[in-house]
Amino acid sequence: MLPAAVLEQARDELMDWQGSSLSVMEVSHRSPPYQGLAHKAEADLRDLLKVPAEYEVLFLQGGATGQFAAVPMNLLRKKTRVSYLDTGIWSQKAIAEARHYAAVIEVASGHSSGYRDIPPEFEWQHDEASAYLHYTSNETIGGVQFQHIPDALGIPLVCDMSSDLLSRPLDLSRFGLIYAGAQKNMGPSGITVVIVRGDLLGSAIRQTPSIFNYGIQAAEKSMLNTPPTYAWYLLGLVLEWLKRQGGLEAIAGVNHQKADILYQAIDRSSLFHNPIAHTCRSRMNVPFLIKDTALESSFLSEAKQHGLVHLEGHRSVGGFRASIYNAMPLEGVNALVDFMVEFERRYG
Amino acid sequence: MLPAAVLEQARDELMDWQGSSLSVMEVSHRSPPYQGLAHKAEADLRDLLKVPAEYEVLFLQGGATGQFAAVPMNLLRKKTRVSYLDTGIWSQKAIAEARHYAAVIEVASGHSSGYRDIPPEFEWQHDEASAYLHYTSNETIGGVQFQHIPDALGIPLVCDMSSDLLSRPLDLSRFGLIYAGAQKNMGPSGITVVIVRGDLLGSAIRQTPSIFNYGIQAAEKSMLNTPPTYAWYLLGLVLEWLKRQGGLEAIAGVNHQKADILYQAIDRSSLFHNPIAHTCRSRMNVPFLIKDTALESSFLSEAKQHGLVHLEGHRSVGGFRASIYNAMPLEGVNALVDFMVEFERRYG
Q1: Are residues A288 and A277 in the same domain?
Q2: CATH code for the domain of A333
Q3: Which domain holds residue A255?
């Protein structure tokens, strides 16, 4: 979902960008107007996230799944081990890919709790010989989200923030590297943001594709080759929209409110429930189950009649899931809650 | 440059795709409507190129530069050498990247002719122990294009067709693999087409990022992770436009005509000239020089006043370059030629 104001601007400019009579898709990425666009997007992102000067901001292709490989390729730095937290499906995908490049230490796993909770930090089996510690800040399928930044005990902390970057303020100085596919809170699919501390660059393994070599891409300002120019443009529009909303503190306030309204409605209900520990419930993806599963299809079809779509739970877990990313307005959550109350009144 | 009809359709559908009240950017890539879009694009591409059934068609990210790495990672198949033709800057980039993975045999090089000609095939130093033979079908900067498919003498033939795929018919059965970034003749930047013979899959080296593992992506229908959904949509619109133009035979006729008109004008001129051997002049990118280089800036600024833009030669070679991809209409070439004649009348 993208903010309506962003889509309107994209439509209005699609055939004539800045009076050029050209679509932004047709403008060379080396031209001064496009360079201006690209630089402004980076400046806005740095501003919103208060990125410290010693960090590089990269705009790459390949999504988070590309970074599952790029992270160990770039950050292994002659070590043989890397540490990962397992909090669900996305962590596990990152772990499986990292095993192509190094031995993976699973520092902790949510497995024993059925991935309904994040193991407490005092139980984590830290490994100081690992090149870094990786975690997934928000599990979109399980609905588990870190509400604090963990301590990596001296090794670089790396985080997949694909589904919650820009949903709240962030202390980037705690991290060696963060990355995020854009398609949840930042823009369309096809562009990936990597923010990496400068001292970690320059040691990629020989087999690293140059487009994934952070040191090369930093030197080339993410333009080693033609970047995904239209996705970068849309990402820039979303960043401008975010600034107009008041920045990350403001959007975090709205996101918190949206999540509270929805979880409170679920917890009050006798028909619906959410199994995740309160301390790590996701404010981006709210999975919920219905006690009488025979009602699932009625719930989805009636919801659709009310204009409430994309409520199916992931095919691997079933049930329902409300994704309430930045672009989802408060009214959308209120409409869902009203519908759930009404549905329970009739079927509960 | 994209066809105006494609941009108009994209604009009209931007906020409401197929009556969904959603932008195509907001539609899940796993949803039936998006799957239909993706399958239709593949079917149209197979139809236009007459892709034999035993070839896989992949839609990836990372551009041709990503494929410079992905090709050796996937096709090395336990061999230690790969063969490359050097016909200019793009070949050399592919060669430099391949050296991360294998020893590169340069089968032939245009170096001795100043890259104004392709060395004749009887001079090529073929290496039958190489995993494949790679060439670049069109050098966009040098303006050198293969007008025939070379013989790889029994090893798989691999070709970077980034700048001329879909500009003319193609006998794919001659190739093991072809690849192309979309942004010249197929769509926007941010999506890359790979067409690979099925028997070459399944032997990628361990370090291959999964998003670049052809076997995995073929099994996942190019959706191992979220694909660049909007770029895929636009590519599909361009394919539909190409079919409306009459397919590749028809567009090749127009492209041939455009190139003939421009080269004839240059060859008739006493002021402008093109240094490339006639047998390998590019029908996509026509570089030309002006005898009195003091006139270069006047030519560019006056051309711009006539609505003729993007005529600067690449910064590495200077002079001028007219890119006459599929989306450039015949009228655009005629306008350029008229302007060149008039310019020569005044300054020649």
Answers
A1: yes
A2: 3.90.1150.10
A3: 247-347
Are A265 and A239 part of one and the same domain?
A: no
Considering the domain architecture, whether residues A272 and A163 belong to the same structural domain is answered as no
Phi, psi of B327 (to 5 degrees): -75, -10
Helix (H) or strand (E) holding A272: strand A272-273
Q: Measured between CB atoms, which of A7, A101, A231 is closest to B228?
A: A231
Question: Which of B2, B6, B11 has the most A C-beta neighbours within 10 Å, making it the best mutation to test the interface with A?
Answer: B11
Q: Which residues of A touch B208 (CB under 8 A)?
A: 100
Q: Which pLDDT value is given to residue B230?
A: 97
- Nearest by CB to residue A63, choosing from B65, B68, B226, is B226
Q: Which residues of B touch A310 (CB under 8 A)?
A: 28
> What does the block give as tokens for B12?
């009209």
pLDDT tens, residue by residue, B50-104 = 999 999 999 999 999 999 999 999 999 999 999 999 999 999 999 999 999 999 9
Q: Chain centroid to CA A196: how far? A: 16
Q: Which residue of A has its CA nearest to B68?
A: A209
Residues A205 and A275 in one domain: no
CATH classification at residue B151: 3.40.640.10
Question: Do A80 and A97 sit in the same domain of this protein?
Answer: yes
- Decide: B50 and B201 in contact? Cβ < 8 Å: no
Closest among A297, A310, A76 to A205, alpha carbons compared? A76
- Do residues B199 and B305 share a domain? no
Regarding beta strands B285-290 and B272-273, do their DSSP bridges make them parallel or antiparallel, or are they unpaired?
A: antiparallel
Interval A61-116: pLDDT, tens: 999 999 999 999 999 999 999 999 999 999 999 999 999 999 999 999 999 999 99
* CA A71 to mean position of chain CA atoms: 16
Interface touch A189/B66, C-beta < 8 Å:
no
Q: At what angle do helices A32-49 and A229-244 cross, to 10 degrees?
A: 40
Q: How many CB pairs under 8 A join A and B?
A: 154
Number of independent structural domains in chain B:
2
**In terms of domains, do A251 and A198 share one?**
no
Q: What is the DSSP string of B157-198?
A: EEEE-TTTTTSS---GGG-SEEEEETTTTTSSTT-EEEEEEG
Cβ(B146)–Cβ(B280) under 8 Å? yes
Beta-bridged to residue B81, according to DSSP, are B103
Residues of A in contact with B228 (CB under 8 A): 61, 188-190, 228, 231
Which among B244, B269, B291 is the end of a domain? B244
- A184 tagged catalytic: yes
pLDDT tens track for B97-137: 999 999 999 999 999 999 999 999 999 999 999 999 999 99
Q: Which residues of B are catalytic?
A: 90, 160, 184
Task: Assess whether B206 and B230 both reside in one domain.
Answer: yes
The residue among A199, A216, A244 that closes a domain is A244
CA-to-CA distance for A264 and B126, rounded, in angstroms? 71
Instruction: Give per-residue pLDDT as tens, B232-272.
Output: 999 999 999 999 999 999 999 999 999 999 999 999 999 99
Predicted model pTM: 0.97
Task: For residue A201, count CB atoms less than 10 angstroms from its CB and return exposed for 0-12, middle for 13-18, buried for 19 or more.
Answer: buried
- Is B209 within 8 Å of A209 when comparing Cβ atoms? yes
Paired strand residues for B86: B109
Residues 6+ positions from A310 with CB-CB distance below 8 Å: A323, B28
Whether residues A14 and B10 touch (CB distance < 8 A) is answered with yes
> What pLDDT sits at residue B33?
95
